[in-house]
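From the shared-data thread, chain only:
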Amino acid sequence: MSFKFALQKVLEVKDFEKTDAERAYTESVEEFEGVATQLYELLKKKEELVEETEKKLIRGLAISSIQLNEQNISFLQTEINKLQLSTQKARQNMNEKEKFLLFKTVDLKKYEKMKKIKQAQYLENEKREELKFLDEVSIQQFVRR
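Structure, as tokens:
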């Protein structure tokens, strides 16, 4: 008779839940990276615009150009603020998914450990039964002599 773990279905469900949590965590990391990259690009664009404006101011620039540059910088700053909020939300979501994944991993490990213990007990019991059987056989052989 082979070993059958009574909670095998539960173990399989826990493994599926862990896999699902891994997928969700990976998606949240990708989402965070995407938003963070957009934020980086906008910050870089704003920095370049500010540097360009400063260089033009040194050479001399028309007031309308200065106003246009300030409007562009103001617009970029508004977009940066929005993306900073999105980045914070994505980071928070990613951290929550990571905690959930950790929880599911620990939960799965508990069931795997339980299975190992039950399997070891089963093997020990089988060994004990085999020794008991061998003892009975040797006793019968001794009695027959």
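The chain has two helices and no strands.
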